[in-house]
Amino acid sequence: MSDNNPDLAAQEVDEELRRDQLNAVWKAYGKYIIGGAVGIVLAVAGNEVYSSRVISAQEANAAAFEVAQKESVTEGADAAQVWADALPQLTDGYVALGELRLAQVTAKNGDIDAAIAAYDKIAASNQHDDVLKSFAQLMSALLIAEHKGNLDEALSRLSVLAIKGLPWYFSALEQSAFIDLQQDQPDAALSKFLLLAGDTQTPRAIQTRAIQFRDMLESQARAALPMQSADATADAVAEMETEEGAAKDDE
Hints:
Elements: H1 6-28, H2 36-56, H3 59-72, H4 79-86, H5 93-108, H6 112-124, H7 130-148, H8 151-159, H9 169-182, H10 186-198, H11 204-250
């Protein structure tokens, strides 16, 4: 039909260009999406929680964690074994941090099922801080989305974290929006990006990405309206022509 309608053809070209723009943004921020977010978020969370724990924890506890941290990044080191050996030496909040590190390197080594199980164990523990438990839930959801391909389960897990006021609300809501896009649910994704873009408490990096995707999705939605209108008009004309043809046949 576009072959006979230059304006509609131009609209379709514009739509294709907008789609290319969205893909470009997606690629530009790919490292933040789904699995790529795991390492970044973990590093931030680990550093923040670690810093707060250093102030109040026993020196021996802090020292043991720091030694394991350094040994785990030494060239040729078996990071998983380093953290497994360090855990018995840790107490209090450092246990959860050590378990998070172990889960992270387990995932990095390719044992995704074991990593998910480790994160789930942390999340289910009554001994750990709620912030770290929620963080473990976030990590397991992202691994499930990226490596297991079960987007529905990942979205379900994220939904209990994407509640305003909870520690990882902004990250969970953003990841939920990305999964919506993967599931071809642009309206659901847009509603979440709108929340993130308009909330003054949204971390700047997340807000910047939300604004980018919000603008792209809104642009796509606007571009689709005239095309839908043109299609509806064409369908109506075709229906009228069919009815007129039927009437003539009856005559």
